[in-house]
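1st attempt posting a full record on here, be nice pls
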Amino acid sequence: MIKQYSGDKEKALRTFIKELFEKNIINAAFLPIKQGETAFPALITSAEAVETSALFLPVMPVSSATQLVRLTHEEPLHKTTIAFLRPCEMRAAVELIKLNQIKTDNLIFVGVDCEGTYDAKDLEKNDIREVCKICEFPETLTGDIKLAHLGLDSIYLTPISNKGQDLLEKTGNLEDNSNIEKEHNDYIEKIKKEHLLLKETFLKEKYEEVKGLENLQKYFETCINCHNCMQQCPICYCHECFFDSRAFYFKSEQFITSAKRREALKFPTDTLLFHIGRMNHMVLSCVNCGLCEQACPMDIKVGQLFTYVNAHARDEFGYVSGKNIEDELPLTTYREDEFKNVGEK
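the predicted structure (as tokens):
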């Protein structure tokens, strides 16, 4: 069953949210609102506040999943709140739920179609992120409600959980519209095919660029160790990171010894160790949002490298990050039959 709201997409969305407020179906909504030329996630608690919504503005300066951690980490929500997330944000939220970082009580997730977003600092380029061009997930994979709009003239809401079904039934006027579903699915499949072709070329080119330790060092040679990529990553959730600790503070003689052994010791030190360490910790949960790359002041293509490594890790473990809330995290699950061929090639 589908709930349809006709007309301009942003206005149609506002009509939907206003209806939820007016019928006391929700107490709050979490979605992007306009801030100058861009949009940021915001918590609103009235029908009037929805007039500044900007859900369909193709910008994503931060991940809504990260902000939901802040919103629910200390305690669950006490009031019914509907949250609108793009596919990569929804997938990140699923991973964070598995990691006990987001509490889902009284939270209803709406996954929104996305054809790509711009870097917040590059709006004038009018070009979506490189990782968005090869994204295989233009529609939501999980959540409570799917908001379809790509390839359509307005917005269509379909329940994908009991919570979503209950909410939409309270609004009334649900209809069976298989024609709309087919039209939408055809458009989504078209995007997926285009992106998969580009991704195939991307993976081959990235392999040549980073294969071997020497190339990997060159890839990160301009890193200033600011850790901005870590700060913006929705999956890096630790409150105290090992790489920000005093574990990398040594006595001066140790630095002298290292400098003698290497002829020259580059500062800041251990930048490659930081990136490899972070990659090992979270690459299986990476959702290819590209925010790490946006955050880098040195324009290192961090997001593209993580997308490359994630693609291979996904194949090895048979795990797609954020696809299913029921899928167990590979690094917390022991399987006796996996990786039997390690060391045999």
